[in-house]
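Subject — a protein and its fold

Tokens — whole-number codes for backbone shape
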Amino acid sequence: MRKFLFCFSLIYLFFNSINSYSQIKIFERNTSDTSKNKNLYNETLSRKIISLNGTWQLSFNEGVSFSDFVIPCAYDFEGKVIFNKKFIIPDSLTENYCFILVAEGINYESEIKINNVFITKHTGGYSSVVNLIDENILTNDNNIEIIVDNELNYTGTFPLKGRIDYPKNYGGIYRDIYLVAVPKIYIQSVDLNISGPTNNPVIKSNFTVKTTELNKIYQSKEFSLNIEVRDRLTGNIIQKSNDVKFETDNFSSKNIEVTINPGNLNLWSPENPYLYDIICYIKDSANNIADEFIFEYGFREITTNKNSIILNGNNYILKGINYYEYTENFASAIDYSQLRKDIENIKSLGVNTIRLPGASASPYLINLANEYGLFIIEEIPANEVPLSILTDESYIESAKKYLREIILRDKNDPSILFWGIGNDFDVTNPLSNNYVEQLKSSANELDKRKIFYTTRNFYENKINSADVTGLNLTDVSIEEFNKFLEYGNNNPVIKKFFESPVLISSYGIRIDNNNRNGYSDKYSVEAQTKYLIEFYNIIKNKFQGSFISSYADRISDRPS
């Protein structure tokens, strides 16, 4: 009898697992895409990329059964999923290189082991995992296990569970995952500080140089570091810095400053997205290249003056659209060809800025924006946060950590315009200013860009410490908005609010895309077109920019 019950249980679990898989929508991305400059890290003379994309084994039932799926992928299942993959590294690499694990997007929480050794635990669906793997963990034959949990809660996750009108909470390893094989001495990060005239700057580059075991490769521990500025369009080297010599040791970290004045430069803007390559070299005592690190850079200056945004010395109006990195076929695991098509189309519409409501951009989207000429406002997903949570110190610390990860990853990209710290959180209480002030202070330690937030509550807004404010006006009638403008003309609090830049961060009306019943039907395409034209004519001379909502539909867990 016991044997019968045991067999019955196995059969039940087997069929139950098949049934549960059939109910889960899984979106697998095409991994044969050959797009260039698509990742956070790319190959150079000294660095190799080992892709971990492709077939993985996934379990949606805590390891009872596994099935093959292609990574990157996204799914509409909520809970823990186990990912497993075997991979090979040639002995020539394991002997001469150290390895950085990069996962550009895992939603939401991930715990990673390689060869049954704990590597890292990461939280945040829009930030990236970048983690040096300790020596002697990787061998020729390897296994990586990642446990992904995308279950949100109502008090401490980013975003909070069940937020209205923000993208659906798809789980998965939904962006590229790979190893970067770097030399035993390598450039971990570069922080550029620009001073002087924007078109003739002095560049102070602060490098963090890391080492592992040097003795097997280098007899001397004397090295030098220098940088070159290369014109991306012509391929010409504009300027080379002097070599900065330094000594280091095994398993150490060293900060080194290199200064260069590249002379007169073309400035980056959406109208003229001129790019340069910053090429960084570490050389050994025999002048051989030990590490080569390359990243693209655009020189531009963005400031604010009272209620104006100033780009390269001139007043600049943002012509924007809200954009979500989601498609019907791939969900959040959007493929590169679709991203490029979207950016080309958005650029052709005359847009100069895209905003990602409650999200930060993928590395490839940022690279496309650098190339095509589009500003990006990227944000941490602090959406619709009530005051009781917004004033909680542990939540504030988590928000600061999330924001700092995004800034450190993306601050060298010219397309990044502002750092967004939240959408539609409680702005009616002055206590909310503490959240804004703490995130602003934390961001300013790393970068000079302005802090941005959005709100629908434009009558009772008590926030006075942000740099730039966005008003979310989706589905607000033109009549109601005119009343607000008239009210603001006679209200000293709102007048003061407009002393710093104010954007219309979202406007439009919800429609049925198949409805062509004409202007009289408020859910028709024609009604939306009429609304957008009339609304834009009202706001174009009163605000520093506006964002149509949105470029394409997206799925929400709680649509309004």
